[in-house]
């Protein structure tokens, strides 16, 4: 009986270390950067606006200024459940679920990207209505962004076209991470980072084997 208890304790200790990896696996419904929205139209209230709005996907975050790249990393950590000091993302997802008559466990985040302007030499401080061409956003529920203070917000009125090819939204906030919130399908959520899970299984198996061999060696010495 003592041997069984020791084995179970070892298993639980190793499995506990793996919990963050399993949690992160269910955060994104697809790997960040797989969807690459492309800006097709911009309308603004800024007179004679000569800037350009662009989308920088997560997998190209190293091309961003350092502060914006860091914001992308922090947004990723929030979504993947790696933030230790807490954030309001869960509350935002809960409200989106309520607004769409569904439950939070049925929602996930699809992609992560920066919306920014270039070719401007001044702080425009305008309002932008942006249309982007999208693909693979699934059952779109909402558009969210994380501001520079680490607070998540929804973008009111963000709307997907009837054919699912274009998303239009109005914002005053640029140079921060945006993401899609979608309803999960029957497929298992994926982040593209499954290595941690395989490592966890290997650790659990190794721990069990070490305990087993330890008991065998102890029994052999007593014989």
Q: What proportion of the residues form beta strands (DSSP E)? A: 25-35%
> Average pLDDT across residues?
77
**Taking Cα atoms only, what radius of gyration do you get, to the nearest Å?**
23 Å
Main sheet properties: 6 strands, mixed
Distance between the termini: 20 Å
What report would you give on this structure?
The structure is a single chain. The protein has 223 residues and is an alpha+beta fold. It has one domain (27-190). 35% of the residues lie in helices and 27% in strands. The protein contains 4 helices and 10 strands. It has helices spanning 2-25, 66-79, 89-99, 195-222; strands at residues 28-30, 38-44, 52-57, 107-118, 128-133, 139-146, 152-154, 159-160, 166-171, 176-183. Strands 1, 3, 4, 6, 7 and 10 form a 6-stranded mixed sheet that branches. Helix 1 (2-25) packs antiparallel against helix 4. The radius of gyration is 23 Å and the shape is globular.
Write the layout of secondary structure elements.
Blueprint: H1 2-25, E1 28-30, E2 38-44, E3 52-57, H2 66-79, H3 89-99, E4 107-118, E5 128-133, E6 139-146, E7 152-154, E8 159-160, E9 166-171, E10 176-183, H4 195-222
Parallel strand pairs: 1-4
Antiparallel strand pairs: 2-5, 3-4, 4-10, 5-9, 6-7, 6-10, 8-9
Helix pairs in contact: 1-4
What are its keywords?
223 residues; alpha+beta; 6-stranded mixed sheet; 4-stranded antiparallel sheet; 10 strands; 35% helix; globular
Short description:
It contains 4 helices and 10 strands, in the order αβββααβββββββα. The protein has 223 residues and is an alpha+beta fold.
């Amino acid at each position: 009986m003592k041997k069984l208890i020791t084995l179970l304790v070892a298993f639980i200790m190793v499995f506990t270390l793996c919990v963050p990896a399993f949690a992160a696996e269910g955060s994104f419904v697809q790997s960040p950067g797989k969807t690459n929205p492309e800006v097709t139209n911009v309308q603004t209230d800024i007179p004679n606006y000569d800037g350009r709005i662009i989308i920088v996907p997560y997998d190209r975050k190293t091309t961003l200024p350092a502060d914006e790249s860091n914001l992308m990393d922090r947004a990723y950590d929030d979504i993947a459940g790696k933030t230790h000091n807490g954030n309001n993302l869960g509350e935002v997802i809960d409200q989106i679920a309520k607004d769409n008559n569904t439950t939070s466990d049925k929602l996930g985040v699809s992609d992560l990207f920066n919306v920014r302007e270039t070719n401007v030499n001044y702080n425009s401080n305008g309002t932008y209505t942006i249309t982007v061409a999208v693909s693979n956003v699934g059952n779109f529920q909402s558009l969210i962004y994380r501001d520079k203070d680490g607070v998540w917000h929804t973008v009111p009125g963000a709307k997907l076209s009837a054919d699912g090819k274009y998303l239009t939204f109005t914002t005053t906030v640029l140079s921060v991470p945006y993401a899609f919130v979608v309803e999960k399908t029957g497929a298992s959520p994926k982040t593209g980072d499954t290595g941690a899970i395989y490592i966890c299984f290997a650790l659990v198996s190794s721990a069990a084997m070490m305990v087993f061999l330890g008991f065998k060696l102890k029994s052999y010495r007593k014989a």
